[in-house]
Amino acid sequence: MKSVRILCICLLTVSAVIGNEKCPGVVTVNVSEESDVILPCSLSTNQNLEQKLFDWRKNAPTKQEVFMYDGGLHYNNGRRGQDEHFRGRVSHFPQELQFGNASIIIRNTTVADSGVYTCDFPHLQPEQTFCIKLVVELTLKDRSGEIPGAAPKPFVGILNISEDEALLKCEVRGASPKPKVEWRDSDGNILPAEEPQVSHTGERYDITLLTTVTRTNSSLFHCVATQEEMGHVTRDQIDVRYCEKTSEVKSCCGVGVFIALWFSGVLTVAAVLAASVAAKCIRKHKKASQRNQRDDPSKEACNGDASVTSQL
């Protein structure tokens, strides 16, 4: 067992030496996800590369053909062989070739772009290879539906509300890994909250978070669920409208009651007037019937309706 352990260490050491001989220095480039990034590669001699060949490959964690230029022919003007993952996203700097600059730009980077890249000049004497380590950092965004386990949009609501405060509830269900759930005000400040209520089925977590807000806070509040491991964040918001104090004329319920009573009063007055008009019309009709033998009934009309209605 000891000899096997020594052999493994030796193999790793030799492998590292070989790698260092091919790439004496590794340049690390950091970029945020969905940004564009330039991977540098330039000859110290400033040799004109317009009729030369250079080849970009991604060697770690997997081998992929990124960009090849050969005397004017490259992957963006007819040459075949580029890995599908990089197709349409990689280009070089044609005006810089005369100065020995073989750098490339990768657009709209993803986390999958992270790894070690080589820029190789196989026909130069001696052959030259440059290594660049690209690190694409996750940015927090809503990845619901894109990644299994990403927390869905929270459910928010008001459990109780009074004149001065409101008890808010936020529920996040079926998330994996366990998300961080927070209540925030409209300025993004984290609000004090009760201890989260956590339950889980297997690796899926359900979390409920309660907070009490008062009139001193803003009226708009957000519940935010974050899973930094996968760069996922989702949120929902609620606008809290407190009732006015009951001592004031225009309270939350008072306004509604006042409007209802006012509307009811209008209907009552209208009903009384309508009944009065109907009674007057009936009296006129009775008188007209009594004169039926002497006068033409068609000449009688209920003229009182128009006058009363116009008053309304």
Automatic annotation (TrEMBL):
Example of a GO MF term: signaling receptor binding
Species in which this protein is naturally found: Oreochromis niloticus
Pfam families noted in UniProt: C2-set_3, V-set
Protein name: Butyrophilin-like protein 1
Cellular component annotations (GO), alphabetically ordered: external side of plasma membrane
Region (Disordered): 288-312
Record's keyword terms, sorted: Immunoglobulin domain, Membrane, Signal, Transmembrane, Transmembrane helix
Gene (name only): LOC102081928
Highest taxon, organism lineage: Eukaryota
Signal sequence annotation: 1-19
Membrane-spanning ranges: 255-279
Compartments, record wording: Membrane
Domain spans labelled Ig-like: 24-131, 154-239
BP GO terms, sorted: regulation of cytokine production; T cell receptor signaling pathway
Main location: membrane
